[in-house]
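Running log. JK asked me to keep both predictions on one page so they can be read side by side. First protein, sequence followed by its tokens:
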Amino acid sequence: MSPNGTGAAAPDAVSRVLCFAAHPDDLDFGAAGTVATWTAAGVEVQYCLMTDGDAGGFDPDHRDSIVEMRRREQQDAAALVGVDTVHFLGHRDGYLEPSHEVVEQVVALIREVRPDVVLAMHPERDWERLQRSHPDHLACGEAVTRAVYPAVENPYSYPHLAEGGLEAFKLSHLWLYAGPRSRENHWVDITGQFAAKVSALRQHLSQHPDVGRMEDYVRTQLETKGREGGLEPGRLAEAFHVVEVNGPDTIAGF
């Protein structure tokens, strides 16, 4: 199943998706409506959070409990859009790098889940809105992109993974979010899932001192994406850079 969208070619049939984010709430801002569309159609979606978001929040009294708090917030948010499994890699907020350690963790998880689609943050900086390009966001996107090709499909990359039963396989599509507008080539109409997206975002109370302003901002952004995606006036959309990693005409190494 592929959500209704326009632009880039997307997979005709999706049964399993693995979504990566740098911090708790990144996926809810960038893709929760699309995730809810997938899960409502019976697609299995899993999340992977690379950092614990320990540098987030506004209340000094939360410092000792912020990791536990943000993990719980993310699990509650995920459940509201039909996601039961949330993986936490546990890296320190603000220190994420696309190192071999992180790439190997990503490769291992992708090989374990064996999804049709991997969804991750964009590795390119957005100069129009720099806040979208937190260094951890860029590191998340770069680590996942490095993992997707060539390591996931190369049995000689991190060979101990294959020896341990995590065999290489060819991923179909990589979907990237929170990147430059110029890269967006696929828009998903999430009008019917807007309430679920907002409910998910509301779970991250440690991050939103003004919930009303946050919700107004999100709706405005989704309306803009709907227009940019050529949807009917008033429709809401999430936008992605869809990359076909392996298609019918893909030649190994090219």
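And the second, directly underneath as requested:
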Amino acid sequence: MNACAYFDEGKCIETMEAHVKKGLELIEDLYIKRDYGKFLGRLLGVGLKTANDILRKTYALHDVGKCLEEFQLRGSSFGHHAFYSYLIAREALREFGSTGKVASAAILLHHHDWIVKESPKKPRNLKLCSECISIIEDLSGVTIPSTLPWINPRDAYGTADSVLVSNLRAVYAILLPITVADNYAAACNRRGKGSALGKEIFETLEVRGWDIARCIPSGL
């Protein structure tokens, strides 16, 4: 089964591996190499190495909900994947304690849909695609559960809300880089079918003189 991050008319246009690797390039060059980890570490109460590590892992996990077999077999949209990614990340990042909870809350918010029109539904098949798990584990360095650790959305959002209220700055300090990296990777890899924020992010990166931003087609 192909591990896909973006389908267009039933065809896989962007693989999960390509999406994560491209975004990690931005995380590394635009944030970590510019000492963003020092700022993040102060907010999280952790050292520089841990702060950088959690930032990489959070990005690698941000779309892990797309690994659901149901999504991969359907070959179309990934509705509520941020919520499913959040549930998986909570388990995968449990060893990081409160820092893992902050990172998971950022994953839940990475599509800016805290207020949703309908509650996420429990997938009929909770199993994750084994190929997709393998890719995410290799790129994140954490263990991914083989099935979605489902809990009631009301309870899940309630837990995330308490994390957001008590750690607002830390959540957004992780959310900003992963959102930029997510849209950057999408714009680079999807043959001009970039995300809604892709063009704006490209223009910002271009102004800052970041050469790698040239991967985004003109006229996006």
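Observation for JK regarding the second prediction: Strands lie at 4-8, 11-15.
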